[in-house]
Amino acid sequence: MSANSQGRITSWHGSPSKPTFTPPPGAVDAHCHVFGPQASFPFSPKAKYHPEDAGPDMLFALRDHLGFDRNVIVQASCHGTDNSATLDAIAKSNGKARGVAVVDPDISDAELAALHDGGIRAVRFNFLKRLVDNAPKDKFLEVAGRLPAGWHVVIYFEADILDEMRAFIDAIPVRVVIDHMGRPDVSQGPDGPEMKAFRTLLESRPDIWFKATCPDRLDESGDPWNDFATAVRPLVEDYQDRVIWGTDWPHPNMQSNIPDDGHLVDMIPRIAVTEALQRKLLVDNPVRLYWPETL
Ligand code: 0GY
Questions:
Q1: Which of 79, 165, 167, 291 has the CA that lies 20 to 30 A from 274?
Q2: Omega of the bond prior to 250 within 30 degrees of 0, cis?
Q3: Burial level of 136, CB count in 10 A (0-12/13-18/19+)?
Q4: Using one digit for the tens of pLDDT, what is the confidence trace for 113-155?
């Protein structure tokens, strides 16, 4: 655990290794965040954690170090529903970043349109009680029904509430992307009950996508995260047209177990074992979600 004198925590590796795997041209890190910088973009009064600054310069340096071309920046819960830090990072990216916002469900249509102009292409609904105080499903559905054209909904929940999430997910009127596969217990293997339940969800709608992300969060066996590789590889193969990948940098709340981002990248060829699968995971699929106008 690492915290500075103001109690702000560092959850990212100071010198990540250079990955052995080389991502294909145009590769997108489709799940990452920025924290602050706090002097310009203070954290929400409701923030459940207070990280050290991890701004766009650091994110873009990591992108280049890892061999990626683009980022999808997901608004982190510590910034609440003020998306200024995310929008600032997108604006500084020279077109190489787009974003996922967290919004107050009462947001106006004009504000949604302004987010679109700033590069946002989705909203995120977070159901983790350790990160947010409440998650009003009825209000989320209302806003999901009036998103700008082409946007999708990103949902973050843990496997123990998958059953109770089903009716809500069924009612979402646009494409859905599930963060970190709904956090299944990967130690159960590819045919374990939690992976099976997640597959049942994917079978229920052809427009539910997922992120094959966060071995560091899901695999208690630790780096090199063999359980994650074993459990997730068949999923990436079977649903190859609706899966994306990201680092999750700066790894919110992982201060006790900070992953090496280079090692995370080296997981990619273990879950997407052919060049064709790697291209779908890292380029074709995220581009369909976040840069569809380039297709
Ligand atoms: C993640 C995971 C976490 C945090 C957040 O918005 C956030 O603060 O998403 C977490 O603590 O599990 O996807 O970044």
A1: 291
A2: yes
A3: exposed
A4: 999 999 999 999 999 999 999 899 999 999 999 999 999 999 9
The Cα 34–Cα 101 span in angstroms is 12
User: Which one of 248, 260, 261, 266 is the catalytic residue?
Assistant: 248
Q: pLDDT of 84-114, one tens digit each?
A: 999 999 999 999 999 999 999 999 999 999 9
Kindly list the distances between the CA atom of residue 41 and the CA atoms of 51, 53, 220, 277, 289, in Å, as whole numbers in the listed order.
Answer: 12, 10, 34, 38, 27
Amino acid at the residue 75 = Q
Out of 44, 123, 131, 245, give the residue to mutate to test ligand 1, the one with the largest number of ligand atoms within 8 Å of its CB. 131
Q: What is the pTM of this model?
A: 0.97
Give the tokens for residue 81: 């529903």
- Terminal Cα-to-Cα distance of the chain (whole angstroms): 44
User: Which residues share a beta bridge with 209?
Assistant: 177
CATH class of 28-294: alpha beta
